[in-house]
Design goal:
The complex is a heterodimer of chains A (about 140) and B (about 500). Chain A is mainly beta. Chain A is about 15% helix and about 35% strand. In chain A, the strands form two sheets. In chain A, strands 2, 3, 5, 6 and 7 form a five-stranded antiparallel β-sheet that branches. A three-stranded mixed β-sheet of chain A has the order 4-1-8, with no helix packed on it. With about 500 residues, chain B is mainly β. In chain B, about 5% of the residues lie in helices and about 40% in strands. The two termini of chain B are about 30 Å apart. In chain B, about 55% of the residues are buried. The chains are: A mainly beta (about 140), B mainly beta (about 500). Chains A and B meet through helix 1 of A and strand 13 of B.
């Protein structure tokens, strides 16, 4: 069990680098969030284009969604059609960071696209990847 | 005294058990003792009176013995990889008005619920590799909540080694959920062996290999301090000790060497590294000193205390090498007993550390486990330690209850005989009395012959006289690890 802790501690913290500006495109992605508790703060969403960006990069764009109910919706515009992954956390106390306990384990809820779950760390690309097609797309995330 | 000579009791229990539970015996290829590792009903045990089979319950003996232990071992033909990985079930025996009533419920952990739904083992554990498809995003996803009980401020908790304390309703045994002691400590491990001062202050360890955390929780539940400690190596740490002024970590040289499940296979015994002892000042957690002793392995301590000159004494059950490690306690669920790996003798021992840092280890001839002390003397005095020990041929688990007096060097014991598997016995202070020996000893026993679980109450001053009162259920429940008595 000791092993699990050490792996989780270093692997599950989600942080987002500054996002580069993206060129206008025809695709949009609406993210529908549910199961949010407490109903405070914001959900910080990182959008990753392709496996390399998801595993190693800082994301191509992102969104911040203020939370006032147990559901919330945000639409991210300007995406090129292709394979994407999402990482997000619920910054429930609004301090702008993903809080962790003294062993580095997240103390705020977090989620990945496809509602994918991790094993000793973040969900892997293969389980989190989804396709954004031309036009409007939607994606449901359950935090509970 | 030998319980086998108490024919009135053995006869009463055997007859009643046989009549009440026909067909409960294991098949011809499965030894009778295996019943201790048989799945409990998933729906638990509804409250059921136990039968008084000898003696009488002392009038003032009122309260509940809560015990915790693994109680789910098998899905179809698939057994859990290690005894330590069975899902926790809290047993309660409520005493009062001369009666005893048993009930039991599984702790509804994430692991238990997921595995019951899938009807197979999923989570990795101490000796279980787990299903690679099982999501593990937090320590409580693999929390078995199967090791010990903590009662604090009227609340009850089922404890494990490396996950949150799971809060349990003390009356119904329904699971309330993981305990968050403070928001910033959410999801921190809470070791199965917290140390509770007589005034109610709780000290405990958050274990994560080389880096530990120390909880200092005030009476009432507020976390006064949480401090990180680096013990220098990823040693296996199941228990520790507390004296009036110090916290003592025994860093045994049983070291995690790799990060592949199951955990036990990653442990390596390195006796050349010795037993390193970290002594931390309770008043100033940054004040720490190390001393060293010859290598011993251990699971459990009793208590610790200090002489006027500063000499520190730590009581523990010490083994020459690790037990129930790789290869140990893996076959018991299927009825396979291998004394070479399932049974080693640990001896009640005292580690003394003089003010100049010199250490001395005195091993008594009392073999046993599950050391227990008077809760009113935890960390204050080191006179009486209760253990259960002894062996019966061809089967695991103890036969004998012993109270050892460190002042006189005498052991007062009672042998239940080969038909009874003896579990941890805990000390229960007598109301209105203050002496260290003004206590009862209460614990459970699994009667192999009648296939029924029993509970026995002794006077701590007169163990060899036998139980003051003994009750039997009409059925058995799985063997457990640790318990706590909560007075009414």
């Amino acid at each position: 069990m000791i092993r699990i802790l050490s792996l989780l501690a270093t692997a599950t913290v989600i942080s987002f680098a500054g996002f580069a500006e993206t060129a206008p495109s025809t695709s949009s992605l609406t993210v529908n969030l549910s199961g949010l508790s407490p109903q405070t703060g914001a959900v910080m969403i990182g959008v990753y284009a392709g496996e390399d960006d998801y595993e190693n990069g800082g994301g191509i764009t992102g969104a911040t969604v203020e939370i006032t109910a147990d559901t919330a919706t945000v639409t991210i515009e300007g995406l090129e059609p292709g394979a994407y992954g999402l990482k997000m956390y619920h910054d429930s106390n609004g301090n702008g960071q993903m809080d962790t306990n003294p062993f580095g384990m997240p103390t705020e809820p977090y989620a990945f696209s496809n509602n994918a779950k991790g094993r000793f760390g973040p969900a892997e690309w293969d389980s989190a990847a989804f396709q954004v097609t031309a036009g409007d797309n939607s994606h449901d995330i359950a935090f509970d | 005294m030998d319980f086998t000579r108490r024919t009135f009791l053995a006869g009463a229990g055997a007859t009643a058990g046989l009549l009440a539970a026909p067909g409960a015996f294991a098949g011809p290829d499965v030894p009778g003792w295996q019943v201790g590792w048989t799945n409990a009903p998933a729906s638990g045990y509804a409250p059921a009176p136990m039968r008084l089979i000898s003696g009488a319950l002392p009038d003032e003996f009122e309260g509940s013995l809560y015990r915790n232990g693994p109680a789910w071992f098998r899905y179809g033909d698939d057994y859990t990889g290690h005894w330590f990985d069975g899902d926790g079930m809290v047993q309660r025996i409520a005493f009062g008005n001369g009666k005893a009533v048993h009930s039991g419920q599984f702790v509804q952990t994430h692991k238990h619920k997921a595995e019951q739904e899938a009807q197979k083992f999923l989570a990795t554990g101490f000796g279980t590799a787990g299903d690679p498809s099982y999501s593990i995003m937090a320590v409580d996803d693999v929390n078995a909540a199967n090791t010990a009980i903590l009662s604090a401020n009227g609340d009850l908790f089922a404890l494990w080694e490396a996950g949150s304390a799971m809060q349990i309703d003390p009356a119904t045994l329904e699971t309330i959920g993981p305990k968050t002691w403070s928001d910033d400590l959410k999801g921190m491990p809470f070791l199965a062996h917290p140390k509770v001062e007589p005034n109610g202050r709780i000290w405990n360890i958050a274990s994560s290999g080389q880096i530990l955390g120390i909880y200092d929780i005030a009476p009432g539940g507020k976390v006064d301090r949480f401090e990180i400690v680096d013990i220098g190596k990823t040693a296996y740490l199941h228990d520790w000790a507390m004296s009036e002024r110090h916290l003592i970590l025994l860093v045994q040289p049983w070291i995690q060497t790799r990060s592949l499940p199951p955990f036990v296979n990653s442990l390596e015994w390195r006796p050349e590294e010795g037993l390193q002892i970290l002594i931390i000042d309770k008043d100033d957690l940054s004040s720490r000193r190390w001393v060293e002793a010859p290598a011993f392995s251990f699971y459990h301590t009793g208590t610790a205390c200090e002489d006027a000159d500063g000499t520190l004494h730590i009581d523990a059950v010490l083994y020459d090498e690790p037990i129930l490690g790789e290869g140990g306690a893996t076959g018991l669920m299927a009825g396979h007993f291998n004394p070479a790996v399932d049974q080693h003798e640990g001896y009640l021992s005292r580690i003394s550390v003089s003010p100049d840092g010199k250490t001395r280890i005195d091993r008594t001839s009392v073999d046993g486990e599950f050391p227990a002390v008077h809760p009113g003397y935890m960390g204050q005095n080191c006179r009486l330690t209760a253990v259960v020990g002894g062996h019966a041929p061809g089967r695991p688990i103890a036969t004998t209850v012993t109270v050892f007096d460190w002042h006189t060097g005498t052991a007062d014991n009672f042998n239940f005989g080969p038909d009874r598997m003896v579990e941890e016995h805990v000390m229960v202070p007598k109301p209105g009395r203050t002496g260290e020996d003004d206590a009862w000893l209460v614990g459970t026993v699994l009667n192999i012959r009648t296939q029924s679980s029993e509970v026995h109450i002794f006077d701590a001053k007169h163990i060899s006289s036998g139980p003051l009162a003994s009750f039997s259920a009409d059925y058995s429940w799985p063997l457990g690890f640790h318990g706590a008595f909560v007075s009414s």
